[in-house]
Amino acid sequence: MAARGVLDAAQVAAATRFRALWESIGGKGAGAINYGKEHVDGGKARDPITEREVNAGKELARCRALLGARMYGLVSAVCDEGFALTEIFTGKRERLTAADCLRMSLDDLAELWRLATRR
User: Fold this and answer.
1) How far is CA 77 from the centre of its chain?
2) pLDDT per position as a tens digit, 46-58
3) Helices (H), 1-119
4) Closest by alpha carbon to 11, among 117, 106, 112, 113?
5) How far is CA 79 from CA 21, 22, 33, 111, in A?
6) What DSSP designation does 89 have?
7) What span, in angstroms and rounded, lies between the C-alpha atoms of 26 and 55?
8) Which of 15, 29, 61, 92 is the most buried (most CB within 10 A)?
9) Which pLDDT band, with edges at 50, 70 and 90, does 60 fall under?
10) Three-class DSSP category at 95
């Protein structure tokens, strides 16, 4: 949608920030295993969850509280998982309504993060 000029700069910035938060809590999936790496005993154990992941989770909880479950799911599917609206919705009217809802949700997130003022 950003490539076609449907989203403004604040909406794109909000979508990018939302995706970065989602990826920081591990939303990008499992990492690859390096089978060529030599295993060494006695190494320092990794923290099970970092402070950055906790803060990202709290920020995403704020987003969910602001948007509600349905709009949060739409923003998550499009911005995080990379689905196109044509993959989620079959009818033209549904897609147009979803595009409007997505733009409104991104406006709300931009306002939450002070990326832009309301029009």
Assistant:
1) 8
2) 667 889 999 999 9
3) 9-24, 51-75, 85-88, 92-112
4) 106
5) 11, 9, 26, 17
6) -
7) 13
8) 15
9) very high
10) helix
